[in-house]
């Protein structure tokens, strides 16, 4: 059943037919999606689109009513929805029955991401989302939609979470049919995504969106729909159908086709996945009003020469000059639950660190970040001069005590925030070429290499002459503070769509 349904969900939502050719039948997208769910459940169509009213600058939510469609199925679908026990999406909005019309302070923005930024988020993309959420909460009428998994449910009420956050999918349906659909959606997410299309949108999220009148109302009333990560951007065609007038922007945190092409195992499988991802990317960028990337390199990979480059706002404005640490300490910061980071850490322990240890007596390696797998924990425990800290609340202390920061990743795509953070803290940086991709500053590293011997040589050079390495790091810090400041970021976001939406873009 899953094998028959997943090509429809992963291809049709993105506007790519199962054959790989761009689909031109935009008007039939919702019908295709509904047919997918019907065939999977062997029953009648289930999902409907409801309407909202908007007047005098106020937003109001109305209950579902029959779909405005010339199709007989449109009316049947909307009537049938009453038979499905819809679970209530978890939300910070409170009881929708008690809502009242409220003035809209600025452009209505819907932010869609499968992750939610919050204070203490362990990965770099989440920290970017946190800054974006704060900006939008301050300057727009923001509604955020995300998938209702346990990870996101656990951050409700945390500092930095948007005032209006609606979690979709994974709700406990009150009827047997609803429970069947939930299980199918979760099974598609956990099984099909890994086996055929790792970049596909969350089936559970889409089912939740189609079943939630609150979420659909927010989408249909939005002036701007901002999609974060490729998984969310896959939904651009469906969202365009729900709200043809909205300005839709997409931020590619990574170019997934490049990331897939760098996977070392099963080359035939990953080559096919990368080719499929390129077709999806081409279809997505055609339907976006604006493409945002973290580097010019990613814009070139997407074949969007005029893509808007947005620099992540990692600088606080309180950066201090770094003083060389008295003890020779190498620092690796990463979210170790990610496969490419786990492999990089183990590669460092096996291939790079033994060479450094042999040449610099007393050197220490600190692996900082949450999510380490048991195999990595066991491997690090066998080394007396290696410390695996787990998640830490204050990275500033780690950088202050470091002699040099190492970014050893060989896979993945996109700008590595950990490299930018090292520059902002004024710590000498040694990196692979993948680790430095998209960072276009002049002479910002103390060493750049992709082989164990080259990385070890660069680390030993810094540890042997920290004063010279620090002078270069000071210059790199001054450049990074200007490039990755919060005002620069805010100005880019406002120019890219907030200001334009107010002008009627």
From TrEMBL:
One of its GO terms (molecular function) is glycosyltransferase activity. CDD domains: GT4_PimA-like (cd03801). Pfam families: Glyco_trans_1_4. It comes from the Bacteria. Residues 1-28 are annotated as: Disordered. SUPFAM superfamilies: UDP-Glycosyltransferase/glycogen phosphorylase. This is Glycosyltransferase subfamily 4-like N-terminal domain-containing protein. It comes from Nocardioides currus. The lineage of its organism: Bacteria, Bacillati, Actinomycetota, Actinomycetes, Propionibacteriales.
